[in-house]
Amino acid sequence: MKNRYYFLIFFVLFVCLCVFWVQFKFWEGWHQIWEKEKKSELHRETFLPQVQNVSGIFLQGPQEILYQKYQDFLSQTSENLQLETYEFTSPFFKDQFKYLLHQGKKIQVIIEDQKYQQYSNPIKQLESDFSGYQAIEFKSDNQMGTTYTHSKITLNERGAWIQTANLTKSSYEQNREHFFYTENAEILKNLQELFSGDRNGSPLAKEDLHPNLVVCPQNCREIIALFLNNAQEEILIQTQYITDLALLDILKQQFSKVKMRFLVADTDDNTDLVEYFGPWIARKFTQFYNHTKMILIDRKYLILWSMNLSQNSLDNNREIWIILIDPVMIDDFLVQFEKDWALMREKELKKFS
Known about the structure:
This protein is of the alpha/beta class. It has 11 helices and 15 strands. The protein folds into 2 domains: about 55-200, 2-Layer Sandwich (Endonuclease, Chain A), CATH 3.30.870; about 220-350, Endonuclease Chain A (Endonuclease, Chain A), CATH 3.30.870.
């Protein structure tokens, strides 16, 4: 009798314990889901909610079709073409510009006239190349108050090219580069306003920029820090180099929180980066010269920019980015990134074996 009594007490306690455990796990699970959803909702509400899905054409180089695509764009110029770039040396594109001038089109160019380690004045060289053509105007960035004109945009009445590449032979034939073309009216209008302001020494304030456009030095440091700090799952970067100390600190802080991979150029500037993070996180890309400047956050925000991740680029240069959220463009970038990443795997891992 006594044994039955003890068994009954034990059974009741066991059932109570099981009920308590089930309820605890149930509410713990719901609490975790609620916290995750609340965090995700906060992320959606505060992390650039105004960014739009801008349609366009997304391309990667080097490939032969880039020449044809850019040439087709130039041929659609009705009256005015505007170019803002760091370098313009390609004979192919110079011939295309001359063809437009023969057709009575007007061309305005803003270009850096004091490039790093330059051997001649680019504006004087271009003025010599286009001697006799009255409808083309070259300007430096002296009126802008920036260290370098490092942006890479071309505009006409129909659309805009935003790219990581300069108008050079090596950019189109030897480098890993990325290109975006859009006919979005709001983007085009805002870039035209920006270009006009740069020519006149009255650049747009950051409040006047389209939500998908980021411009250095107006708002690029705050936006890139926002992207990196708010990454929830993954940061992928393919760029020439990463040397800005503040951004490196953010990446080091995020190292234990999100997945990260960096593909950088095979230069001495990136040696410390690769050694610090190791080849599972950071690798030098050697198939082509890695001149592109791309970042992908959580596989939701793809940024195509002219900017290297350096202090000078962020704070002193004229740089222009566009933020893309089109899933097809993101997939296109991911496919090529994974191929580039896999190519470097064996070589980079051998150094650490």
